[in-house]
Specification:
The chain is α+β, with helices and mostly antiparallel strands. It is built from ten helices and 19 strands. The chain folds into two domains: 283 residues, P-loop containing nucleotide triphosphate hydrolases (Rossmann fold, 3-Layer(aba) Sandwich); 63 residues, no CATH class. GO terms for molecular function: ATP binding; ATP hydrolysis activity.
């Protein structure tokens, strides 16, 4: 699980910006939202321009060099903070796997160019390189003794170089290393405002309609919409390119789903497209949905959060403007985060007052109770 990220000189994050998911409290309710003492389900609030989207981009920056999964390069334009005259971004991640801690730090001179990397497992150096000093990396990984350590001018991450070029011994640290690699490979980002862009998990473009029908989930998708208050009858047919299309069946004719669906219904279709994968056991390790409920009524937003809470093995972070889902009935105060351009803190850490399950934390938030 992702426990913490620190980032500086990246987009609007000028100085060291810390998002700590491990600073939890001892609330006795909604305990399923915490796993291994780390927030497992989080919702982030912030005004326009506070950096909520950039937080997602910062977290998923490591996808670009650690995996061959989908990445949206347009998200990484204007890489450095415009107020600084520095051309080096710094990232530090902390992950927890049971009682084991993985720390991964790196610097970049641009979106595609690594300068340095350091990986620690339980406080001990496992991998290290500083390309400004040398093209030779060092590693304590058992089984890598005979591996060539000089990577020359290659920009490959030493994490990928190690995993692809040698067979490591069956040791505790090596198992943790591969667990970390697998977690990153299964991370997923998407935003409700753009159905064509996602990052992580897979590669290439997909047709939502074709995918739902191909997976034999049309009936379930229809039920999903009906349960959300969108009463409709769906059928499918092949188009001229032999791709599955979804139609809405009316009394006198059938019309293309995406031709007549509202923005909210289209957003639900996108959610369902990814939800199919989320329901598959251990298919997604980490999910970040930006502006997840931009087109939803607040009651539907609550329903979708409840669905995501059922995903025990997927860590979820949502960003939103919808204050109606700030409720102890849904999450808990250490799972709601208030974001500003220079900091982010949970509600629990934004007050000295003791918070209880019976408190109306939305009303308290609106009254400016949390600072």
């Amino acid at each position: 699980m992702l426990a913490k990220i620190e980032v500086s000189n990246f987009k609007n994050f000028k100085d060291n910006f810390v998002f700590d998911l491990s600073n939890t409290s001892s609330f006795s309710f909604n305990q399923e939202c915490i796993k291994n003492k780390v927030v497992n389900k989080a919702i982030v609030y912030g005004h326009n321009g506070s950096g909520k989207s950039n937080l997602g981009f910062a977290i998923f920056d490591l996808i670009s060099h650690m995996t061959d999964k989908e990445i949206v390069q347009d998200y990484y334009k204007n890489y450095f903070n415009a107020d600084l005259d520095e051309t080096k971004s710094r990232f530090r991640f902390e992950f927890r796997f049971d009682k084991n801690i993985v720390e991964y730090s790196y610097t970049k001179s641009d979106y595609q160019t690594l300068i340095s990397e350091e990986l620690k497992i339980n406080g001990k150096e496992y991998l290290y390189i500083d390309r400004e000093q040398s093209s030779i990396f060092r590693t304590s990984a058992k089984g890598a003794k005979s591996l060539k350590k000089d990577i020359g001018d290659s920009n490959i991450s030493i994490i990928n170089y190690l995993s692809k070029n040698t067979i490591l011994d069956d040791t505790k640290d090596n198992k943790i290393f591969f667990e970390f690699k697998e977690f990153v490979n299964k991370m997923l980002y998407f935003r409700a405002l753009d159905d064509k862009c996602y990052m992580g998990l897979e590669q290439g473009n997909h047709s939502i309609e074709h995918d739902i029908v191909e997976r034999k989930n049309l009936t379930d998708f229809e039920k999903f919409l009906n349960d959300a208050g969108i009463v409709c009858k769906l059928i499918s047919q092949k188009d001229s390119f032999n791709k599955n299309k979804i139609l809405i069946k009316f009394q006198n004719r059938e019309l293309g789903f995406f031709e007549v669906a509202s923005s909210g219904t289209k957003a639900l279709a996108l959610f369902y497209f990814w939800y199919q994968r989320l329901k598959e056991e251990n298919s997604v390790s980490f999910l970040f949905i930006d502006e997840f409920d931009a087109f939803y009524h607040h009651s539907l937003s609550k329903t979708l959060v409840e669905k995501l809470k059922e995903l025990e093995n997927t860590q979820v972070i949502l960003t939103t403007h919808n204050t109606s889902i700030i409720s102890n009935e849904i999450l808990r105060p250490d799972c709601y985060f208030l974001m500003y351009p220079d900091r982010i803190r949970s509600l629990a850490k934004s007050t000295t007052k003791e918070l209880r399950e019976a408190h109306n934390i939305e009303k308290m938030y609106r009254a400016g109770f949390f600072e």
